[in-house]
Amino acid sequence: MILIDYKDRRPIYEQVIEKFQQMILCGVLEPDSAMPSVRGLAMEMSLNPNTIQRAYQELERTGYIYTIKGKGSFVCNTASVAEGKRRELQRELQGCVDKALLAGISVESLKDMVEQCIECGLKKI
Amino acid sequence: MILIDYKDRRPIYEQVIEKFQQMILCGVLEPDSAMPSVRGLAMEMSLNPNTIQRAYQELERTGYIYTIKGKGSFVCNTASVAEGKRRELQRELQGCVDKALLAGISVESLKDMVEQCIECGLKKI
Amino acid sequence: MILIDYKDRRPIYEQVIEKFQQMILCGVLEPDSAMPSVRGLAMEMSLNPNTIQRAYQELERTGYIYTIKGKGSFVCNTASVAEGKRRELQRELQGCVDKALLAGISVESLKDMVEQCIECGLKKI
Amino acid sequence: MILIDYKDRRPIYEQVIEKFQQMILCGVLEPDSAMPSVRGLAMEMSLNPNTIQRAYQELERTGYIYTIKGKGSFVCNTASVAEGKRRELQRELQGCVDKALLAGISVESLKDMVEQCIECGLKKI
DNA sequence: GTGGTCTAGACCACC
DNA sequence: GTGGTCTAGACCACG
Question: For D54-104, how does the pLDDT look when each residue is reduced to its tens digit (9 = 90+)?
Fold first, then answer.
């Protein structure tokens, strides 16, 4: 299930979005399968339906899901979505790298740090 | 001088903090040199003194500057600060990498992306 | 309720912080229970909301409370907090002891003073 | 000589006062010996004479030194002074102890902490 | 409703 | 002159 970290400073709806993005991109949620209903999910997670609604809207706007009135929301095909996510991550990564370089960290150092991150990240999965 | 990006969603004081961190870490502001006065900088940037004050307070709390009441604020020695910044960046980088891996991006792909970022980042400096 | 001592030279927000730290550490405020709202408490204490806000921010930064935007602030689990407080007190105590020793007070004398303090402190609780 | 810690949040004049109190109480400065001149000391320490002046005023007010117009300032007999210092320290110690007890630290724990402080403090001298 | 940020302007202690 | 604190009141994002 989706777990909310209340100590995370980001708004709840962003956390919900992120979790669904992950599940869609890594294939846990298959294309054209139904998303949980807004009200049902809200109840299950003890959240305000508005919060879920906002997350779904954003997921629809960014091409992760599509909605059929009266039927519910469904997962999009991932091909196009993956490319978008890739670009988004590239932007974020660029931000990190820029900061590091501006802080005077050498390219060598930086690559080492990335290696460590990857190693560490692989363990978590 | 420091430019504020009002389209940036982050608060102004955070942008001010970031700019000074960069200037201190990359040596533009030398250790023990005087920071601009709170009021002076506020006037120059057309900001409220409280906003600058808050940025300076955070910079002091995180060890970038030290303050002498009635005299002003001054830049700390960078040695210890650099290590802290490195750890902070490592954490942020880890976040990026984790997201990428969770999104199903391969390690190969990821390394390519980092290479591109570094190349691109070096041009900006 | 929280009483402010206007004769105290310390800023109001520090007094507010201290009072809440006490209430959290000694268990008057239970983990995950809600803190009073910023505006509500400000009104009740006839203080500016900013002053309360600042106190809450510091309490959050030091791990006493956590905040959910739009919902309010809540008390953290005390386990980890207690250890931090202990270290803080140890530092402060060290300062006192150092001063006493530097002033030429004998170890014997000092221990007697501490005994008196403890005796006296226990009565206040 | 007297060293000022600019990173100390307390005002400079308080640090000056404290250092002289220590030197007088532990006998480094003998009764009726001359204090350094305000201007001379200010120059030597690269401080504003006002700052030294204020420290001397406070030292005179609290009975550590006495001033003869046109001749300078001199160290008082320590007997009476020591008792005052002792009371001041007792007050400060009481504050620490009260905080600890309010934070739920046991008397046993507290005594252990004091022992550690004393041990640690003796090494510094 | 909640907290987070910002502006405007005041007063204080310190140097 | 400097930074530190506080009040008053506004606007925003979030739930």
Answer: 999 999 988 899 999 888 999 998 777 888 888 888 989 999 999 999 888
Count of domains in chain C? Answer: 2
pLDDT at position D38 is 92
Residue C42 in domain: yes
* Residue A11 contacts C, CB cutoff 8 Å: yes
The pLDDT of residue D17: 93
Return the closest-CA partner of residue D76 out of D60, D62, D65.
D65
Name residue, tokens 């007997």.
Answer: D79
Bases of chain F within 7 A of a CB of the protein: 1-10, 13-15
Same domain, B91 and B73: no
- As a three-state string, the secondary structure of B57-100 is HHHHHCCCEEEECCCEEEECCHHHHHHHHHHHHHHHHHHHHHHH
Which nucleotide is the nearest neighbour of C70, by CA and C1'? E2
Which one of A38, A54, A77 terminates a domain?
A77
CB atoms within 10 A of CB D109: 12
Q: Answer for C59: CB within 7 Å of strand E.
A: no
Give residue-wise pLDDT tens across range A53-94: 999 999 998 889 999 988 999 999 878 788 888 888 999 999
The pLDDT score that the predictor gives to residue C81 is 83
Give the mean pLDDT of chain A: 89
Residue D51 in tokens? 């700052």
Are A16 and A67 found together in one domain?
A: yes
Q: The whole model's pTM is what?
A: 0.83
Rounded to the nearest 10°, the torsion over CA C6, C9, C15, C21 is -150
Say which CATH number the domain at D59 has.
1.10.10.10
Distances (CA, A) of D109 to A38, B17, C78, D100, D103: 53, 41, 18, 10, 12
